[in-house]
Structures are given as C-alpha cells and as structure tokens.
Automatic annotation (TrEMBL):
Pathway: Amino-acid biosynthesis; L-histidine biosynthesis; L-histidine from 5-phospho-alpha-D-ribose 1-diphosphate: step 1/9. The keyword ATP-binding applies. Heteromultimer composed of HisG and HisZ subunits. Belongs to the ATP phosphoribosyltransferase family. Short subfamily. It comes from Paenibacillus baekrokdamisoli. HAMAP family: HisG_Short. Its main location: cytoplasm. PANTHER family: ATP PHOSPHORIBOSYLTRANSFERASE, ATP PHOSPHORIBOSYLTRANSFERASE ATP-PRTASE. CDD domains: PBP2_HisGs. This is ATP phosphoribosyltransferase. The lineage of its organism: Bacteria, Bacillati, Bacillota, Bacilli, Bacillales. It is found in: Cytoplasm. The gene is hisG.
Length: 225
C-alpha cells in the first residue's frame, strides 16, 4: 500500500519518522504538555486543529490524531509505532502491544458505582463502557451479572432503572455527587501509558528508547516539584 501523506516520509537524516498515535480530547491536552516538557515541541496551534496527521520532521516524529479507544489497534497493527493510551482502554482492548511507560497523566480510577441504598438484586445488571473489564471483575468475584454495554452518560443507568450498578471512571467525583450515586469499590487506578508495536520496538529501538528517556526525565522533574 502506498500512501503519500507524509507519515512514511523520512526525516532530515533519511530515517522514517516515528509514528505516534496520539489520543484526541482529554489525554491530548496533558500528553502534548508532557511532550513539550520532554523537549518535543508540539506547536500549540495543533491543539485546536482538525488535521489528523501532523508531521514534525524536525523531531523525527509524525502524530496520528486518534480516537482514544482506537490507539491500541493502530499500534498493534503497526500503522503507529508507539501510542499513548489510558490504562482503562488498555485493559478493555487487551491488544498485543508492549506497555513501555507509565506517563502519570490523566489520572482517574475505574470503580463500581451504585445508589446509596443498593441491595443485591436477583438478576443484577451492570452498565458500562467497559464490558470486558466489568465481566472479568465480577467473574473473579464469583458474582453472576448481566453486563450492558453503553457508550456514555453511564451514570444514567441506575437513575433510570436500566442497571442496578455501573462500572465507570471516577476522577473528581463530581458526576457521582451531582447524581446522588456512591462509589462502592475501586477496581484499579488509571493513568496514561506509552505503548509500542512489538516489531517497531525492535526496529526503531534507538528512537523509541530516546523518547522514553526524555519522557522519564520530564515525569521525574514534575514529581520533584
Ligand atoms: N474523568 C475522566 N473521565 C473519563 N476519562 C478520563 C477521565 N480522566 C482521565 N481520563 C482518561 O481519558 C480517556 C478518555 O478521554 P476522552 O474523554 O477524551 O475520550 P473518549 O471517552 O473517547 O471521549 P468521547 O467519547 O467523549 O469523545 C480515558 O481513556 C481515561 O484514560
Ligand atoms: O469524577 P468526575 O470528575 O466527575 O469524572 C468522571 C466522569 O467523566 C467521564 O465521563 P465523560 O465526561 O467522559 O462523559 P461520558 O459520560 O460521555 O463518557 C466518566 O465516564 C464519568 O462520567
């Protein structure tokens, strides 16, 4: 397949650009800041662009602006060498990729949530954007539940009687408070991770390792403030 879009163009020294799958939305805001702190100058005018492929030959990288949930797929198939993705998506998608680095950004947690007066139901139903994570969690507890996949506004489900509990992300807790819901259990903590395609990790090891080192320094510098 021949694609003349700059993704496969070489940098000044003739090397192919490192292809980075960058999630749009929430994570982009904090990830682009971290990259800048790590010495990868993503121009601020990219923050509002509708462009889907952004080349930065001066730093040897091109960015694929992706829907967050698609990042592991791009990386598994090697159309992106590396990517940034929340641990939530990584757990749900379960793709064959290397997890290289915890970037420590976009922190939140995956939790079981319900009404304050929740009681075990005969046929319990759990609504979530993360059916695989939720099914595994309840299976390991030995609890039989029906998992209902939704795509957003998950907190509605217990309010309108679709499900008696939900599995969803909690960050500040504001959505729960405003809807009279309570966090019943935390399943795992979430931060964004740097992931790599298995072949790219071998073939472009020097570039990937160099980026990891820079990011690690930026993360450590933040932690020491
Ligand atoms: N409060 C939060 N709610 C949801 N995700 C959060 C939160 N804080 C951090 N995150 C991280 O951000 C990612 C979601 O980002 P974002 O909301 O931009 O994507 P999205 O859910 O695909 O958005 P949408 O479907 O609304 O376009 C999650 O995968 C998670 O890792
Ligand atoms: O604890 P908080 O700070 O309130 O954040 C948690 C909320 O944020 C996310 O929703 P999002 O804004 O992504 O909208 P969505 O319902 O469309 O998924 C998540 O699904 C929770 O609803």
């Amino acid at each position: 397949m021949s694609l003349d879009n700059g993704l496969y163009a070489p940098d000044q020294s003739g090397r192919e650009l490192l292809k980075v799958a960058m999630p749009k939305g929430r994570i982009y805001k904090v990830a682009s800041k971290l990259f800048r702190e790590a010495g990868v100058p993503i121009p601020t005018d990219f923050d509002d662009t509708r462009k889907l492929i952004i080349e930065l030959p001066e730093v040897g990288m091109s960015f694929i602006m992706a829907k967050p949930v698609d990042v592991p797929t791009y990386v598994e198939y090697g159309v992106a060498d590396i990517g940034i993705v929340g641990k939530d998506v990584l757990m749900e998608e379960n793709k064959d990729v290397y997890e290289l680095l915890d970037l420590g950004i976009a922190k939140c947690r995956m939790s079981v949530i319900g009404m304050p007066d929740w009681k075990p139901a005969i046929n319990p139903r759990v609504a979530t954007k993360y059916p695989s994570v939720a099914s595994q969690y309840f299976r390991e507890l030995g609890q039989q539940v029906e998992v209902i996949k939704l795509n957003g506004s998950i907190e509605l489900a217990p309010l309108i009687g679709l499900a008696d509990r939900i599995v969803d992300m909690v960050e500040t807790g504001q959505t729960l408070r405003e809807n009279g819901l309570v966090e019943m259990e935390t399943i795992f903590g979430i931060t964004s991770r740097l992931i790599a395609n298995r072949v790219s990790y071998r073939m472009k090891n020097e570039e990937i390792q160099s980026l990891c080192d820079k990011l690690q320094h930026a993360i450590a510098a933040k932690a020491s403030v």
